[in-house]
Amino acid sequence: MRKSHPIRRVVLAGAATVSGIVLLLSLKPATDPASAAAGGAVPPVAAQSPQGGAQAAGSGTITGDAAQTQYGTVQVRLTVANGKITQAEAVQAPKGGQSDQVTANAVPKLNQAAVTAQSANIDAVSGATYTSAGYKESLQSAIDKAKASGGSSQGSGSQGSGSQGSGSQGSGSQGSGAAQARTVTGGVAQTQYGPVQVRITVSGGKITKAEAVQTPKGGQSDQVTANAVPKLNQAAVAAGSADIDAVSGATYTSAGYKESLQSALDQAGG
Fold first, then answer.
1. Is the pLDDT reported for residue 48 higher than 80?
2. Which residues are in the FMN-binding domain (predicted)?
3. How far is the CA of 146 from the CAs of 45, 84, 197, 246, in angstroms?
């Protein structure tokens, strides 16, 4: 009986040791997966937060600049949600006579094309060449404004004090990059029939709008100007330079227009 007690103690001590080891091993795996799961749950939440903020930006209504065409003014307004064009509409379009029919046919197609393309890279509507060109010009202006409003630095300087300033035009357009619109007026070009002066709007390094602020007036010049200037304006935007053709029957006006246009481009930095 005396020899059996030490053996029992050894057996009991061994069993207790084994039980303790098993208990420790059983607790450790339960703790690690829990901590791993907790660590893995944080990144998705953090990743979702900035996405929600980005989607909230870039929403609202933006109206583009009015584009002058041979048959009247065209101006486009966009509704943008989450950075996408959801609606396009012409708030101004040529009116009167045959223009009413052309506008009624062309504008709905242009509106739909703008939403589909999500850009100003849309086809002209057959039979409405001038209206389509004016629509695209105003549409591009609205898109540029929508992009500019997305950044704080671009929003403040798009058409503020730098529009006619002496030194801010060059540095503003070249330093900040795309989508910062500004207006530059060229020098006055003297022609045989009167002065010609051109003003352009530049955005993203491209001419988005051109207009003549001074043109020959009086007598036959009124008719020549009314016919030639809208064509020269459109040609300047299309070419993006002063390398444009003269309008037939308006040689002097065309030459003065090109001279003043080149002056405006030089001021804008080329």
1. no
2. 70-146, 192-268
3. 30, 10, 30, 34
